[in-house]
Amino acid sequence: MKNAIESVLLSEAQLSQRVAELGKQISADYKDKKLLLVSVLKGSVVFMADIMRAIDIPCEIDFMAVSSYGAGTKSSGEVQIKKDLDRTIEGYDLLIVEDILDSGKTLSYLRKVLAARNPASIRICTLLDKPERREAQDIAADYAGFIVPNAFVVGYGLDYDEKFRNLPYIGILKPEVYTK
Ligand code: IMP
Ligand code: MG
Under DSSP, is residue 161 helix (H, G, I), strand (E, B) or coil? Predict the structure, then answer.
């Protein structure tokens, strides 16, 4: 697995320090709110597990699964809900937890779908933000862990062709892995 990684972009220590900071900020901002963390499977699962434990106010969690990528490295723009939330979200303050904000197409679609269900508020918390690649103009991260360059990254939940999610750090994938 490590042979496919060109370089480490974010180490385990950098990730855990930043996640702790985000958790603190979210805990302060959502004090007295009805916080519901919505994790977008599968990429955000590692980030979700860490950020929820860095939040020290009462909150609930739920999961959604969407797909827009297949085995490629670019968003097709066609988003499909593969698993919906288990509950109604009316009155909840939603925080969507994402692994990476890339073109923004996935979150743009997801936010519209969720907004139609009358939550009290919706914000976006993404571990990584790749602003260079943004196409959806209506999307910005309310909380972003790190701004990253335009390279395909894997690890800490992020995959290439469903692999590398279990790397404990974020690495830049060697281009020959996805161009061959
Ligand atoms: P968007 O719709 O283009 O913003 O795509 C967002 C989704 O694409 C993320 O939730 C990831 O699953 C995937 N993605 C985008 N960039 C990368 C990357 O560099 N590595 C792994 N997955 C990525
Ligand atoms: Mg993915």
Answer: coil
pTM of the model: 0.94
Domain 14-151 class in CATH: alpha beta
Give, using CA atoms, the residue closest to atom 20 of ligand 1. 153
- Whether 142 sits among the annotated catalytic residues: the reply is no
Cα gap 152→88, rounded to integer Å: 35
Count the helices and strands in the chain (H runs, E runs). 4, 9
Q: pLDDT tens digits, the chain, 180 residues: what are they?
A: 889 999 999 999 999 999 999 999 999 999 999 999 999 999 999 999 999 999 999 999 999 999 875 556 666 667 889 999 999 999 999 999 999 999 999 999 999 999 999 999 999 999 999 999 999 989 999 999 999 999 999 999 999 999 999 999 999 999 899 886
From ligand 1's centre to the CA of 101, what distance in Å? Answer: 6
Which residue among 50, 93, 99, 102 is the active-site one? 102
Ion ligand 2 neighbours, Cβ < 5 Å: 43
Pocket of ligand 1 (CB under 6 A): 43, 68-69, 75, 98-106, 152-154, 158
Q: Which pair of tokens denotes residue 18?
A: 């930043």
Helix (H, G, I), strand (E, B) or coil at 18: helix
